[in-house]
Specification:
alpha+beta, 3-stranded antiparallel β-sheet, extended
């Protein structure tokens, strides 16, 4: 019977799960986004959000608790100096899960887990102006020549 046993096992032992979650949260805070399976993203998301909320307190006890979970000291420094202050007015919801594709090897649903403020706007794709034969037009050639100078 599974009475009062909460959490996903993800086919791993307790130690392996804990190490995996620590590494994934560290990577998320370090890089701003990670690509993983949807199941893992759903488990890691609340852990990361609790750490960011903890870092918003910015006291010694919060730093010690963050150091005990995050594997890299420079990531803890980044959490307290950059990430937590950027979310100071936000009462939660620091991360988002975006479903991307299915993995080829085992057809697992993949997702992008990212911090809300970390995304950069994608550049709008501008079509190159070409004539009927597919050659670039004169203004484009002039811009390329100026860029080389």
């Amino acid at each position: 019977m599974r009475h009062r046993s909460a959490g996903k096992k993800l086919s791993r032992t307790r130690e392996h799960r804990k190490a995996m979650f620590r590494n994934m949260v560290t990577a998320l805070l370090e890089k701003g986004k990670i690509e993983t399976t949807v199941a893992k993203a759903k488990v890691v998301r609340p852990i990361a959000e609790k750490l960011i909320t903890l870092a918003k307190r910015n006291n010694l006890h919060a730093k010690k608790r963050a150091f005990s979970f995050i594997t890299k000291p420079e990531v803890v420094k980044k959490l307290f100096e950059q990430i937590a202050p950027s979310f100071k007015d936000r009462p939660g919801g620091y991360t988002r899960i975006i479903r991307t594709h299915t993995r080829i090897g085992d057809a697992s649903e993949m997702a992008l887990l990212e911090l809300v403020g970390s995304e950069t706007p994608a550049p709008s794709p501008e079509k190159a102006k070409t004539d009927k034969k597919g050659k670039k037009t004169e203004p484009e050639k002039a811009q390329k020549a100026e860029a080389k100078k």
